[in-house]
Amino acid sequence: MARTAGSHSDITGPRIREAALRLFAQHGYAAVSMRQIAKEVGVQAGALYNYTPDKQSLLFDLLKGHMDDLLTARAALKKPDTPEDRLETFTRFHIGFHLDRPEAVFISYMELRNLTAENFKIIEDLRGAYESELEDILRDGREQGVFHVADTKITTLAIIAMLTGVNTWYRSGGRLSQEEVETIYWDMVRKAVT
Amino acid sequence: MARTAGSHSDITGPRIREAALRLFAQHGYAAVSMRQIAKEVGVQAGALYNYTPDKQSLLFDLLKGHMDDLLTARAALKKPDTPEDRLETFTRFHIGFHLDRPEAVFISYMELRNLTAENFKIIEDLRGAYESELEDILRDGREQGVFHVADTKITTLAIIAMLTGVNTWYRSGGRLSQEEVETIYWDMVRKAVT
């Protein structure tokens, strides 16, 4: 009996996504062909099309998968009571989640320009949902008088840019442990909003 | 009399750099050919090679030109006396300089991976020189007891990531003026280090 499309996809799908992620991160989406991705996986180019209709779908799956993972991991976290504790949890979570997936983070920033307008909108909405979680913490803290933030939206974007920036320089085994880095950033974030 | 190479370069050079910058920012370095750049400028592909030996040199010129401009503009600024005033000047300068050149900033982050090792080292050293200016301010402030910073190197990288992040969302004519944005960021930076 021939392999079914289902069982084929189950095995090949993750390998295709991994190969596409690696190649997009290394060379950029526009420079990578479906043929190169197939070669990296070790299948015929035609076999790729059993799994994904085109390169755009592959890019979108990677970026959407990254955002889905982020929101799922965030939803699974315990939520402390106070705005300050919630902000610390958010800060440490954001750094750890992003350090664990450097290539996905890299293409999520680099390749937004290569999404179709429709796909871009979906990713932007997911980002908005994530940013809202941080903005809610800042707003609650401001209402309770523990945070002093002129503009919760801009402070949200500033904190996220600062925390994601860790990915550009942190190497495990370097001068500081991840825990120490998280603590230094948490100290800056806490002071910036109080 | 035939045009000299000198006069030809004087006119065509800036147009080639502009076209390369625009195309690299839009499609990514790896996806853009010398032929496309020539077409965008409106010259034969061969004419490009009078100006630049190859695409790598063109990318390097753009990234190095951006860093040279940054360091020159920074050096031309008045230097206030106190660490706090110097930090405010740095903060406002960094935001303004980067908002003025979105494409150069974009490729300076995106295309580092496409530089040769030798070219990468030169750009990294220039970045290091710029980062040192901020770190010196933080160190002086700490020595004078006005800043409380656990790690001046990491705080430098955190502040630069936060400030450069403005480029990802700011649009002139939006809800806030550049001056208002600078003031909000300066407030966060000031609080984060004191």
From TrEMBL, chains A, B:
Domain HTH tetR-type, residue spans: 10-70
DNA-binding region: 33-52
Span of the signal peptide: none
GO MF, one annotated term: DNA-binding transcription factor activity
UniProt keyword list: DNA-binding, Transcription, Transcription regulation
Keyword Ubl conjugation found: no
Highest taxon of source: Bacteria
InterPro entries in UniProt: Homeodomain-like_sf, HTH-type_TetR-like_transc_reg, HTH_TetR, KstR2_TetR_C, Tet_transcr_reg_TetR-rel_C_sf
Protein name as catalogued: Transcriptional regulator, TetR family
Species this chain originates from: Marivita hallyeonensis
Taxonomic lineage from the root: Bacteria, Pseudomonadati, Pseudomonadota, Alphaproteobacteria, Rhodobacterales
